[in-house]
Inverse folding.
C-alpha cells in the first residue's frame, strides 16, 4: 500500500506535535507521512517539492497567505486526486462555507477532535484511491485505443491497397476493393494475387464475430488461403485444405464464409468455390443483373473432414462481378430496416459500363444515404471484377 502524504498548514506550533503524537502508529508503519508548514507560502513551496502530497489540512486564518488563498492556488494545480480539509474555529462558519463552495473536500473545527479528523482523512483516502483507480482505468483505455488504432493500421496494411493491382493486365480487367470495419478493427477481408501469367485469384471473406478475436482469425485465414492458393490448382482444393487446417486451430468455434475464385484473364472464365458466402451479383454488359447460385458448400473452420466443390462462370467483355459481405445487404436504418439485395441491384442497374471503383463508391454512398446516420453494425466489404 502506498504511503499517503499529508501536508498540515497551521501557524500554531502545538498542532504539529499533536499530529505526530496521534498518528504515530500510522507514521511508523509507513501508512502516513506528514509535512508541516506555518502559512500558505510555505505550503506552496512544500507542494512544489513534493507533488505527490494528496491531503492538505489547512487553517483558514494564517499570516502572509491565508487558507482561502492557498485553496485557490491549489485549485489551479488541477490535481484531481488532491483533497483539502479546512480547519478553523467553530465561529468562523462563513469562511468555512466559502471554502467548501470553493472546492474544499471537508472541514474540521478547533479545538480539533482528532478521532473525527482521522475519520475525515480516511474518507478522503477512499476518494483519492477511487481517483487513482479511475486514472489507471483511463490510462489502460487510452493504451487500448492506441493499440486498436495500430491494429487497424496493420489490418489495412495487410489488405491490398494499390489499384490497379495488376497494371500489366489493365487492358483485360478492372479490379477494385474496399473494407470499412464496423468497429476499430474488422473481421472481413478481401485479397487477390497472381497464380500464373493468365490466372488471378480473388478472395472475399467474412469472419464470424467482431473486434480483436475476429481480426486475428481474419489475419490467419487470409494467410492460410493465400498460401494454399499458390499451391493448389483449383479453388475447391484450396478451400478444402484451408478448412482442414483452420478447423483444427479454431478457438471458440470461430468460422468464416469465403468466396474464392480464380479468373482467367485471357478467356474470362471464372472458376469459384463459395463456402457459405453471399452469392455475388453479376452485372452483364447489357444491363441485366444475375444473382449467382446460393452456396452448396459448408462454411470454413468448423468441420475438418469435408470436401468443397467448385463451379464455373463465364464473364463476357463488359461483364462485372460484384462480390460483397453481408454488411452490405444487411446495413440497417435506425428502425432496423435492411438495405437488401433489391436496393443493391437498383443501384447496380444504373452503373452499366462504369469502372469497379465507381461501382463500389456509388454503392457505399447509397448505403450511407439509406441508413441515414444509423450506427454501422457490421463490416462493409466489397470486391469488384470487371472484364474489359
Amino acid at each position: 500500500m502506498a504511503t499517503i502524504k499529508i501536508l498540515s498548514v497551521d501557524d500554531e506550533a502545538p498542532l504539529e506535535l499533536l499530529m505526530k503524537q496521534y498518528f504515530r502508529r500510522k507514521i511508523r508503519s509507513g501508512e502516513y507521512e506528514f509535512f508541516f508548514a506555518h502559512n500558505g507560502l510555505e505550503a506552496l513551496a512544500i507542494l512544489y517539492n513534493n507533488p505527490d502530497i494528496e491531503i492538505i489540512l489547512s487553517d483558514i486564518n494564517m499570516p502572509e497567505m491565508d487558507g482561502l488563498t492557498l485553496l485557490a492556488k491549489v485549485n489551479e494545480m488541477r490535481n484531481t486526486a488532491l483533497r483539502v480539509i479546512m480547519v478553523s474555529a467553530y465561529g468562523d462558519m462563513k469562511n468555512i462555507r466559502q471554502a467548501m463552495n470553493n472546492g474544499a473536500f471537508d472541514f474540521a473545527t478547533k479545538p480539533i477532535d482528532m478521532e473525527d479528523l482521522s475519520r475525515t482523512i480516511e474518507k478522503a483516502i477512499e476518494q483519492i484511491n477511487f481517483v487513482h483507480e479511475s486514472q489507471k482505468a483511463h490510462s489502460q483505455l487510452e493504451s487500448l485505443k492506441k493499440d486498436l488504432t495500430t491494429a487497424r493500421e496493420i489490418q489495412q496494411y495487410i489488405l491490398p491497397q494499390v489499384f490497379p493491382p495488376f497494371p500489366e493486365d489493365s487492358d483485360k480487367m478492372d479490379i477494385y476493393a474496399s473494407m470499412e470495419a464496423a468497429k476499430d478493427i474488422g473481421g472481413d477481408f478481401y485479397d487477390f494475387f497472381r497464380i500464373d501469367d493468365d490466372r488471378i485469384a480473388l478472395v472475399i471473406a467474412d469472419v464470424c464475430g467482431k473486434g480483436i478475436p475476429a481480426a486475428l482469425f481474419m489475419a490467419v485465414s487470409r494467410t492460410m488461403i493465400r498460401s494454399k492458393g499458390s499451391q493448389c490448382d483449383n479453388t475447391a482444393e484450396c478451400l478444402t485444405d484451408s478448412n482442414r487446417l483452420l478447423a483444427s486451430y479454431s478457438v471458440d468455434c470461430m468460422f468464416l464464409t469465403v468466396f474464392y475464385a480464380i479468373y482467367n484473364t485471357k478467356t474470362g472464365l471464372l472458376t469459384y468455390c463459395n463456402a457459405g458466402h453471399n452469392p455475388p451479383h453479376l452485372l452483364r454488359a447489357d444491363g441485366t443483373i444475375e444473382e449467382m447460385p446460393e452456396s452448396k458448400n459448408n462454411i470454413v473452420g468448423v468441420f475438418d473432414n469435408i470436401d468443397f466443390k467448385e463451379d464455373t462462370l463465364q464473364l463476357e467483355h463488359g461483364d462485372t462481378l460484384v462480390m460483397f459481405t453481408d454488411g452490405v445487404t444487411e446495413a440497417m436504418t435506425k428502425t432496423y430496416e435492411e438495405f437488401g439485395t433489391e436496393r443493391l441491384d437498383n443501384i447496380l442497374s444504373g452503373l452499366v459500363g462504369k469502372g469497379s471503383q465507381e461501382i463500389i463508391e456509388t454503392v457505399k454512398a447509397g448505403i450511407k444515404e439509406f441508413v441515414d446516420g444509423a450506427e454501422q453494425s457490421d463490416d462493409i466489404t466489397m470486391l469488384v471484377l470487371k472484364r474489359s
